[in-house]
Amino acid sequence: MSKPRLAGKVCLITGAGSGIGQATARLFASEGANVIVADVDDRGARSTVASIRKKDGDAVAEHVDVTDEQETVALANKIAKRFKRIDVLFNNAGISGVGDVLETEPDLFDRVMRVNVRGVYLMSRAVVPHMIKQRSGSIINMSSCIADIGLARRVSYAASKGAVLSMTKSMQVDVAHHGIRVNALLPGTILTPFVERYLKESYKDPEEGFASIRKRQLTRELGRPEDVASAALYLASDESRFVMASGLVVDGGVTGAK
Ligand SMILES: NC(=O)c1ccc[n+]([C@@H]2O[C@H](COP(=O)([O-])OP(=O)(O)OC[C@H]3O[C@@H](n4cnc5c(N)ncnc54)[C@H](O)[C@@H]3O)[C@@H](O)[C@H]2O)c1
């Protein structure tokens, strides 16, 4: 039997109580990682951990609000104390924001930027010192294919995911000489509670919304959380050792087919 792809690696995943983060936590654990399932939603985090332990995987649930500096620092220090290292940080936690420039209230704009951008910055700032000490690490930042394409009524969300992609490239330049890699994931539409909520909020008839999103994909199907988890696994593992500052698109052809 081949060696698990993340054998012995300590992997912190934010927003791992639901959707893509949850699928990634399960996949990483099945590949031998020690997974820290961090979320502001404690119930979600505990349920992810329970499903991993059922399959004899290693995972612990931790509370974090990624917008809170003290919480991010406390979490990083706690993990480093317990596991002596942090090999992978997957900055996955994020929220959506629907609206064009006129519909988007300043409060919503600020909230989306706070979670999606400040959250990535703060969690990275808390973890990087530990990665510098061990002279290795892989940071994966959750962007979106919307960073590359225009999509209607997504002013706040698009701004946040574009910022994450730019921050990824800049961070990579700064930390490369410490043996740390920083890459971004750019998923298309993935069927998670996030998208189910969006369909309900944005369309009078969610079925009609679902059909129009399916039409955008070359696959004619939405992606699954596991499709993104597999890409995250590659970026987390040493197989991607030569991959730096990249934006890996996982979108059923939406971007490339334009
Ligand atoms: N689903 C998609 O189509 C899609 C496409 C591209 C990118 N993304 C991105 O992928 C990521 C995960 O999305 P998902 O679809 O799995 O969503 P989801 O809503 O199912 O999961 C997001 C998780 O993040 C957590 N979270 C939210 N705010 C937080 C905070 N301040 N601190 C800690 N945790 C917090 C939530 O509690 C939730 O468990 C997000 O960054 C999202 O923008 C999703």
Short description:
The chain has helices spanning 19-30, 42-54, 69-83, 106-134, 155-175, 193-202, 206-216, 225-236; strands at residues 10-14, 34-39, 58-63, 88-91, 137-142, 180-187, 247-250. The chain has 258 residues and is an alpha/beta fold. It has a 7-stranded parallel β-sheet with strand order 3-2-1-4-5-6-7, sandwiched between helices.
Structure description:
The chain is α/β, with parallel strands linked by helices. The protein has one domain (10-96, 110-188, 224-250): NAD(P)-binding Rossmann-like Domain (Rossmann fold), CATH 3.40.50. It has eight helices and seven strands. The chain has helices at residues 19-30, 42-54, 69-83, 106-134, 155-175, 193-202, 206-216, 225-236; strands spanning 10-14, 34-39, 58-63, 88-91, 137-142, 180-187, 247-250. The chain has a seven-stranded parallel β-sheet, sandwiched between helices. Helix 1 packs across helix 8 (225-236) and helix 3 runs parallel beside helix 4. The model has no long low-confidence stretch (mean pLDDT 96). It binds nicotinamide-adenine-dinucleotide. Nicotinamide-adenine-dinucleotide is lined by residues 14-15, 17-21, 39-41, 44, 64-67, 92-95, 115, 119, 142, 144, 187, 189-190, 192-195.
